[in-house]
Amino acid sequence: MRVLAAMSGGVDSAVAAARLVAAGHDVTGVHLALSRTPLAYREGSRGCCSLEDSFDARRAADRIGIPFYVWDFSQRFAAEVIHPFVDEYRAGRTPNPCLRCNERIKFAAVLERGLDLGYDAVATGHYARLERTDGVTRMRRAVDPGKDQSYVLGVLNQDQLSHCLFPLGDSLKTEVRAEAADLGLSVADKPDSYDICFIPDGDTPGWLSDQLGEETGQFRDESGAVVGHHDGYHHFTIGQRRGLHLGTPAPDGKPRYVLDIQPVSNTVVVGPSEDLEVHRLEAIRPVWCSGTPDDAWRGKAQVRAHGTPVDARVELVDGGVRIDLDAALSGVAPGQAAVLYDDNLVVGSATICGTDRAGLDVAAALRGSEKGAA
């Protein structure tokens, strides 16, 4: 099989490529250049797309003995990942750019070009397992629960999964590092990447301020009373506690959390932690990994990459999904992805557009905001 191995410059993608070579596949390594100014992704970046990473990927490919190329996807990455990321924050939502990159770049743009060039599949170092039976490709959680990445792959459809290979899904991370050391790969002890690649210093609020500017807004409690001021709603996400710097303490002295974000009025609503509890999720744009499920079924819902899955009843409603949770989740924000499971099988995903937080009276806070503006 002719395989295009996406090599980020980390240990996982390097070992994935090496395993494919050992299995007898015809492998070509490719590193994705996602910035027009890669030097801006300085040495020491905690993402996966620095110039240093491209050098690490090339050295790994040379050690494995496979051809290696760098593909410039910076223009499409900006259009498909960075600009939507900014737009989502502008709208007061909380996006996950890694899911978007997997959906639109690694397993769409790269796969399209690879198929056009005669490759049969794209391989990555993601930790997830694939099963192919009766012409259907099914994705399951990885063996290593601490490294399972099925959540960020839950946006892939059946056609994309049918052309994917994840050689590390049955392995523990410790085994992968040991294998890299045995192969003489210089990345064997390289730390994992964990920041947004286009915000290499990890300062997301600062980066967003450069994109969206700053404008003084108000913190309000659920009654509409002003309890502080901020430099822009895009600095905050639902569930956030730190960095609020409120001028007025809560009557009971307990910490306040971000409960809601209102972009039009530049208002951030704050309140007690119990008002963050969510029992129902409404979601749109579902993607079904292995075919559309029944109109109503029971499974598990996960709303963060390493979040705890919660038992839930899932119902397909008007082209979207309604998810009734058996146990409450906290701090869920519109824009996050809900990935749905049947045991360890990934059924699909959808984008959260609404939640039911009975304790939150946004209308009261907005009325207070309107009075303040008047």
Automatic annotation (TrEMBL):
Site (Interaction with tRNA): 126, 336
Region (Interaction with tRNA): 147-149
Protein name, per record: tRNA-specific 2-thiouridylase MnmA
HAMAP family attached to this UniProt entry: tRNA_thiouridyl_MnmA
Key word Signal present: no
tRNA-specific 2-thiouridylase MnmA-like central domain residues: 208-271
Gene3D superfamilies: Adenine nucleotide alpha hydrolases-like domains, HUPs, Translation factors
Gene designation: mnmA
Location of this chain's protein in the cell: Cytoplasm
Keywords: ATP-binding, Cytoplasm, Disulfide bond, Nucleotide-binding, RNA-binding, Transferase, tRNA processing, tRNA-binding
Residue ranges occupied by any tRNA-specific 2-thiouridylase MnmA-like C-terminal domain in the UniProt entry: 279-352
